[in-house]
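Same chain as my last thread, 332 residues:
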Amino acid sequence: MTDRSLTKPSPANSTLQDARRTVEIERDGLDALARALAEGSDLSEALIATVAAVRNAPGRVVVSGMGKSGHVARKIAATMASTGTPAMFVHPAEASHGDLGMIGTGDLVMALSNSGETRELSDIVNYCARFDIPLVAITSVALSSLANAADHLLLLPAADEACSVTRAPTTSTTLMMALGDALAVALLRDRGFDRDDFKTYHPGGKLGAAFQRVSDVMTTGAMPLTTGDVSVRELVAIITHGGVGTAGIMREGQLVGVVTDGDLRRNIGRDLLQLTAQDIMTHDPVTVEMDTLAADALGLLNRKLIQVLFVVKDGAPVGLLHIHDFLKEGVA
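reply #2:
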């Protein structure tokens, strides 16, 4: 007799199979969406028209949806707002109790509903029709009420939900999220939105730090600068007073070398006090420009195994960068 316990899947294996199958089903849905966006397809033409409609709308993109679609709608609005497309979320139930006043005649409304029959969206749809406000629908049902009312229909391809028993929104909301991201990226490219603009909207956290420029973090003011003919004795005093372990060597207004604490130590056996700065300086020092990304400048410090960089403009020093400046600003 066969022991059935030897062939029965363990709870852990069953859980893993369910999880993997969920990801596979959603991946298949995303593949279908990518195919639906092929050049010349109905969805691709609708997306192009939607980008043009958003560009021509003088107001904001108002995104709305109920339930899980509402959570996706909030995320789409937030992504658009952070990438140069003014956008906001309006809850459809709240819209029916006064928040319709938040939607202006210059706005464009984007409504999300997998079935296209979400009852709570009806007042927003009617409001758009009454005041001639452009309506974009994201739905999976071409013959739904929402699809029929829309000026621009972004029709999601047919795709299975991860759970066939409950039909809980899984794949459908994943496709909505992906299509929203596709729209946001297409819009930012259309607007010429670049990383300087992105930095403006993301001044805090790691994203803000990643897009800071050298000019944002460098130290300006008095710098440890001298000429090549000064004695090492004087040079030591300049480096000590500067407090960053280095001094810049100037000639005719240009930075031509640097002397660091390390240079002093390496030359200790050369009757050091009888030498001048130009005798021990590093010629053609590593420098950066003010518009260099701070993250790139930090990478340069790490690659060169140095702690201080002079910032130059047309060869003249305008600031200093110390490794501590990056740490203080969160660029790491």
